[in-house]
Amino acid sequence: MSAQHVPVVSLGDVAPDRRRGGELRTLLSPKSVGSTSGFLGVAGIQPGDYVAEHYHPYSEEFVFVVEGSLVVDLDGTPRELRADQGLMVPIGVRHRFRNVGLVPARVVFHLSPLAPRPELGHVDTETHTGSTSAVGGE
């Protein structure tokens, strides 16, 4: 692919996905840019909201907090993650992102490698109910 044919995707080009909590937008993916090794997106998580627990059987997830802060539950163990900090969620580790702060959080995420098929890449272990208290907030 030549430099003239490299697509640029803006946040406003992608509809938000709110099914699992937060506002998830996958910007760079096999579908949007033809990536073959992984995908990247941005999550907005309001105070009191969370992204429901799940795991990835094929992918590591790299997370970087741009604004705000989160508690990331890794196999049930809470870890605080503040602005300008990142972490990697290993393959198969159950994880949930909770905003227990007072300001919105903005997070960049990248998953790699890709699952053999998209429907195999994400396994939900709980249903989003809309409140951090429903998942044992701090």
Notes on the structure:
It is a single chain. This protein is mostly beta strands. It is built from 1 helix and 10 strands. The chain has one helix at 30-33; strands at 23-28, 39-45, 50-55, 60-67, 69-74, 77-82, 86-89, 95-98, 105-112, 123-124. It has a 5-stranded antiparallel β-sheet. It has a 5-stranded antiparallel β-sheet with strand order 6-5-8-3-10, with no helix packed on it. The protein starts with 22 loop residues before the first strand and ends in a 14-residue tail after the last strand. Residues 133-138 have low confidence and may be disordered.
State the main characteristics.
138 residues; mainly beta; five-stranded antiparallel sheet; 41% strand; globular; disordered C terminus
Q: What would you say about this model in short?
A:
The protein is mainly beta. The chain is 3% helix and 41% strand. It has one helix at residues 30-33; strands at residues 23-28, 39-45, 50-55, 60-67, 69-74, 77-82, 86-89, 95-98, 105-112, 123-124.
